[in-house]
Amino acid sequence: MDNDKRIAEISKVLGVDTRIKIIRLLSERCLCVGELAEELGITAGAVSQHLRILRSAGAVLSEKRGYFVHYCLNENVLRSWQSEIISLFEPEEAAK
Fold first, then answer.
1. What is residue 57's three-state secondary structure?
2. So what's the pLDDT on residue 1?
3. Averaged over 37-52, what is the pLDDT?
4. By C-alpha distance, which of 70, 90, 83 is closest to 10?
5. Lowest-confidence region among 3-7, 32-36, 91-95
6. pLDDT tens, 3-14?
7. DSSP class of residue 18?
8. How far apart are CA 15 and CA 62, in angstroms?
9. In Å, what is the CA distance from 46 to each residue of 10, 38, 87?
10. Residue 40 burial (C-beta neighbours within 10 Å; 0-12, 13-18, 19+)
11. Average pLDDT, stretch 40-46?
12. 20 Cβ neighbours under 8 A, 6+ residues apart
């Protein structure tokens, strides 16, 4: 997949402010759906839908802890996204 398409896909995932808020919360610590819902002031169902998209994009990892599933950031994927987004602003010769 070329870099432009990849950046467009990343932009779709990050194009919703609630997902950005989830990423910011998870950058502090791993949280379960209920904790995220409480912090964001939205339903657990809405949080689950956003987490599904973040998980399918590889940005979030899940881990079952007892009765709850906790979500954490996938730092490797987010670093890769950062690099790809930064490349968007580089001169075309440098990007090759």
1. coil
2. 57
3. 98
4. 83
5. 91-95
6. 888 899 999 999
7. H
8. 22
9. 20, 12, 32
10. middle
11. 97
12. 14
| Structure tokens given for 8 | 């467009």
10 Å Cβ neighbour count for 88? 12
User: Hey, which bits of 3-95 come out as E strands?
Assistant: 31-32, 60-65, 68-73
Residue 55: partners with Cβ closer than 8 Å, 6 or more residues away: 61, 62, 71
Determine the structural domain holding residue 64 and report its residue range.
3-95
What CATH number does residue 12 fall under? 1.10.10.10
pLDDT per position as a tens digit, 49-92: 999 999 999 999 999 989 999 999 999 999 999 999 998 888 77
Rounded to whole angstroms, how far apart are CA atoms 77 and 16?
A: 18
How many structural domains is the chain composed of?
1
Q: To which residue do tokens 């994927």 refer? A: 77
**Residue 92 is encoded by which pair of tokens?**
């075309």
